[in-house]
Write a structure and sequence with these properties.
Shape: globular
Number of domains: 4
Order of helices and strands: HHHHHHHHHHHHHHHHHHHHHH
Largest sheet: none
Number of strands: 0
Radius of gyration: 32 Å
Structural class: mainly alpha
Length: 547
């Protein structure tokens, strides 16, 4: 199972609340900073916490239980710190800081990649639980409910038969000790595999035989197993289970959560046995394999959206200045200015290299080297070639920035041969002008309702058509259709010297309200719901039928 097949979800609800959650996190982070520096309760901290706790409830409503738990624990830990601000414990502050940071990064990651990976949250959750003295969340927690419903019998690979030894337990303790200290060698890993084989052999015909067979499977994967704190605790708990087993193998039976924890190790790989166990237990695709986690971790722990946006803005601004210099001054450019331009291009090329935009890096560097030739910049063909390279480089960083924003917040780009930064500017202007037209049309229609004698509706059909064209350009076909139908209806009414009644005007106002809401969402980087124009479209289609 590859990472591409992992379960995806619709992040629209998360995107709608993301800004408010981010603001709440910022308030709490600021309060923590003030608390640590001044050792006194900052102003407004109670309101900030109340808002933060409200965010937890909203996250629960949109089915993000792990995020809810972290948010709740962060608030609880903050209140613990507030009780004695002059005696702040460093581990508490570290855990709280990690909690708020992970909240922010995980929400951004989930919104962007459209996946839920609660496994990423376990370590952070555990550190908060340690500070609060709460039971630790285990990796197998998500599997426990599945085992409550079914009791699967596994047809697992048979462990090879080995001679009995009284040193199995001691061997595991030694290898585990090295693993905990991160000093393990290849020999330690082989010893762990050997222990798993012994346990599978020793447990034959005992009530815990299946459990130890699962341990055998998990230990055979120890070379590829990603070891985090939660899994270290599972490996430690296995040592405890071994003690209980050796005391009374005929009576020993593991607890449900112990089985769940070892199953979480067994399904961590992308091999046939892991897939087989997944299917038997009916594990969902939201519990990812280690390979999938590794792929997604590069997104979660890489540069965040704000960082990429800042870099993109600085580079785009510098490139735009270079572009303008060439566009308007290439024929009169001095050798000194050309040398300055070359230095700038080389510097920017290295920025693109750092961003892994290698194609743009190579192209800019090549163009910069050509500038060493005398009067090259004044060559019209070269100047055009250089402009094309700059355009391509600017678009590559524009695409990079778009990759750090949700697809549900992006406006479509159909032509990559135009400048994306200028396209973004055009989008901004279009949104502003469309909103002004909506306000103007709405005011005229409201005036018509209030004062039928003095209202003037002559310009409204053309205004509605202009707004509909803007919506079509922005990819909102339903909105375009609703506004166009409203415009055509109103135009027919005016041509027939008829005055639309209040009900008809209210329908048109509803259509305009939908367009206004959509533009507000685009301007505020909020997702546009596809159902936004459903009511408006149905209303516009019925306009002619309204008496």
């Amino acid at each position: 199972m590859s990472y591409q097949t992992s379960i995806h979800f619709d992040p629209t609800a998360l995107l709608i609340i993301k800004k408010e959650v981010d603001n709440s996190i910022q308030l709490v982070e600021s309060a923590v900073s003030s608390l640590v520096e001044d050792q006194a309760l900052p102003f407004g901290i109670d309101d900030a916490l109340a808002q933060f706790e409200q965010c937890a409830q909203v996250l629960l409503l949109i089915d993000m239980p792990s995020l809810t738990q972290i948010t709740t624990y962060c608030a609880e830990l903050m209140r613990k710190i507030m009780k004695d601000p002059r005696n702040i414990q460093t581990p508490d502050v570290i855990a709280l800081s990690e909690g708020t940071t992970m909240l922010k990064r995980y929400i951004e990651f989930s919104s962007l990649r459209e996946v839920k990976v609660p496994q990423f949250l376990i370590d952070t959750l555990n550190r908060l639980e340690v500070c609060l003295g709460k039971p630790l969340t285990q990796e197998g927690q998500a599997i426990v409910p599945l085992l409550d419903r079914v009791n699967p019998e596994f047809n697992l690979p048979q462990a090879p038969i080995l001679e009995k030894s009284g040193y199995v337990h001691k061997l595991y303790k030694i290898s585990l000790k090295h693993l905990l200290k991160q000093t393990e060698t290849g020999l330690d890993l082989q010893d762990i595999k050997l222990v798993g084989t012994y346990l599978a052999n020793l447990s034959v015909s005992t009530p815990s035989a299946q459990y130890w067979n699962l341990v055998y499977v998990a230990f055979n994967q120890i070379d590829e197993l990603f070891i985090n704190e939660a899994r270290l605790r599972t490996l430690i708990s296995i040592e405890t289970q071994m003690s209980n087993f050796f005391k009374d193998s005929a009576q020993y039976k593991p607890e449900l959560h112990d089985v769940a924890n070892i199953l979480s190790l067994c399904i961590s790989q992308d091999d046939e046995i892991s897939q087989y166990i997944r299917e038997k237990v009916n594990v969902g695709e939201d519990i990812l394999s280690d390979a999938q986690l590794q792929v997604f971790s590069r997104h979660l722990y890489g540069p965040d959206q704000n960082t990429i946006h800042s870099v993109s803005s600085l580079v785009t601004e510098e490139m735009a200045q270079i572009r303008n210099d060439i566009e308007y001054n290439y024929q009169n450019m001095t050798e000194e200015k050309a040398q300055e331009l070359k230095t700038k291009l080389i510097d920017l090329a290295h920025v693109f290299k750092v961003l892994n935009l290698n194609e743009a890096y190579v192209e800019l560097k090549q163009q910069a080297e050509l500038l060493t030739q005398s009067n090259m910049i004044q060559n019209e063909n070269y100047a055009q070639q250089l402009m094309n390279s700059i355009l391509s480089a600017m678009n590559s960083i524009g695409i990079l920035e778009r990759n750090y924003s949700s697809s549900r917040l992006q406006l479509r780009v159909n032509n990559m041969n135009i400048s994306l930064d200028r396209l973004d500017e055009a989008h901004g202007v279009l949104l502003t002008e469309s909103k002004a037209l909506i306000d103007l049309s709405s005011q005229a229609l409201v005036t018509q309702i209030k004062d039928t004698e003095n209202a003037n509706l002559e310009m409204i059909p053309s205004q509605l058509k202009e707004i509909s064209g803007a919506l079509l350009f922005l990819g909102q076909k339903e909105g375009y259709k609703a506004l166009l139908q409203s415009a055509e209806f109103l135009q027919q009414q005016l041509q027939s010297e008829k005055v639309p009644n209040i009900e008809q005007i209210n329908i048109i106002l509803d259509v305009l309200a939908s367009a206004d809401m959509m533009i507000d969402n685009l301007q505020n980087k909020q997702p546009v719901l596809q159902s936004m124009f459903d009511v408006a479209l149905r209303g516009s289609e019925q306009l002619k039928l309204v008496a």
